[in-house]
Amino acid sequence: MLFDLKPKKRKIDLFDRKEELEGVMEAFKKFPIILITGLRRVGKSSLIRVSIAESKYSSISLDGRLLFMNSGGNIRKMHLVNQIEKELANFSKSEKLRKSLKTLKGISINGNSVSLDWKEIDILSLLERIENFAEKNRSYVILFFDEAQYFKHYGSRGGKDLLALFSYVYDNFERIRIVLTGSEVGLLHDFLSADDYNSPLYGRVLKEVQLQPFSKELSILFLKRGFEELKIKVDFDLEKAVDILGGLPGYLVQFGIRYSEKRNFDAAMDETLKTITGMIKGELEELSGKSRRYVKALKYIASGADTWSKIKNIFAINGDIISDSRLFEILTNLEKMCWVKKEKGEKVIYTVVDPMVRHVVLSKY
Ligand SMILES: Nc1ncnc2c1ncn2[C@@H]1O[C@H](COP(=O)(O)OP(=O)(O)OP(=O)(O)O)[C@@H](O)[C@H]1O
Ligand SMILES: [Mg+2]
């Protein structure tokens, strides 16, 4: 069903994205490390889940944002191993896997269940066994790190231990594929820093699949298909909804569900905007925790201060004399986190990427 809030898992529930799906499935066979990048709610998790399901590979998923939250901001081996243990349950029914893992230190196998002792287990040795298992099956195992930029909070060296593991997998394993998603695209690239010779990943080729929001036409078609699927006749022009919401499937799904419940455009849109505002407010709070100036800058840009000097001025008018280097840092980071887009023409113009974020910072925040 298209109007479902959870990331899609089945191909028939995934609208469009044919090329991207083929791209990812091809990439599984060719590239040890694959990045899926795009704005929040654009459909990264859906794309990767459907790709894994379609290719019928086993997978281990680790959600960076969740691990970051649950670990109080400092992800350690214990958290990683606990999550791996849960994920192993997905394919521990396989006799072959249990056989490959049986003799590994730190692992105990009881019937179908596999438990790991985080102090004892060596993650690299575990991956070696998984590689052997995949090799024997002539298959691949996907190690999926969702919102991977959060893994820079792994261990005490800014995530470098994990990057070292990635580079070992890259160099030595043929059957384990590492898939990383990131909505803060610049931060993800900073974390991996494959072009920095101090990074363990230096020189490795990372295949990137970028997901864009749907075009206006596709967004309209997405809503049309979603309502058709539910056999709901709509009494408004779909374009009107898309003009407000933009092309992020996450927003379109929210609206689809609300309209199905209310059968009234204004009431449904009102509820949708409230929900979206709630989601974005949470994200803005997280951003504000890094620096209050990020949210201020977003607000100023949304209100029309679209050049460097206008932004600097409006900070000053509001009593905050900001240095050039600090403003540079704020705008560069906002761009890396994909809140803001910089267009280079005669002048450099800044815009807020997501129309809903624009709406929220201008109205209530
Ligand atoms: N191609 C698609 N077809 C149908 N539904 C989609 C598609 N892409 C995304 N969705 C829906 O949009 C919502 C957001 O998708 P998803 O969680 O996959 O995005 P995401 O980019 O991983 O988001 P986040 O940044 O919040 O993790 C979900 O409700 C999902 O079902
Ligand atoms: Mg996701």
Defining key terms:
alpha/beta; binds adenosine-5'-triphosphate; 5-stranded parallel β-sheet; 3 domains; Rossmann fold; two-stranded antiparallel sheet; binds magnesium ion; Arc Repressor Mutant, subunit A
CATH superfamily of the largest domain, by name, is P-loop containing nucleotide triphosphate hydrolases
Mean pLDDT: 94
User: What percent strand?
Assistant: 5-15%
Structurally, the number of domains stands at 3
Radius of gyration: 22 Å
Rounded to the nearest angstrom, the distance between the terminal CA atoms is 34 Å
Tell me about the biggest sheet?
Answer: 5 strands, parallel
Low-confidence stretches: none
CATH topology of the largest domain: Rossmann fold
Structure description:
This protein is α/β, with parallel strands linked by helices. It has 3 domains: 11-210, 3-Layer(aba) Sandwich (Rossmann fold); 216-282, Helicase, Ruva Protein, domain 3 (Orthogonal Bundle), CATH 1.10.8.60; 291-363, Orthogonal Bundle (Arc Repressor Mutant, subunit A), CATH 1.10.10. Helices cover 52% and strands 13% of the residues. It contains 16 helices and 9 strands. It has helices at residues 18-30, 44-55, 64-70, 77-88, 95-101, 123-136, 160-172, 185-192, 216-229, 238-245, 249-262, 265-290, 292-302, 308-317, 324-336, 355-363; strands at 33-37, 58-63, 107-110, 113-116, 141-146, 176-182, 207-210, 340-344, 348-352. The strands form 3 sheets. A 5-stranded parallel beta sheet has the order 2-5-6-1-7, with helices on both faces. Helix 7 (160-172) links the parallel strand 5 (141-146) and strand 6. The longest helix has 26 residues, at 265-290. It is globular, with a radius of gyration of 22 Å. The mean pLDDT is 94. The structure holds adenosine-5'-triphosphate and magnesium ion. Magnesium ion binds at residues 44-45, 146.
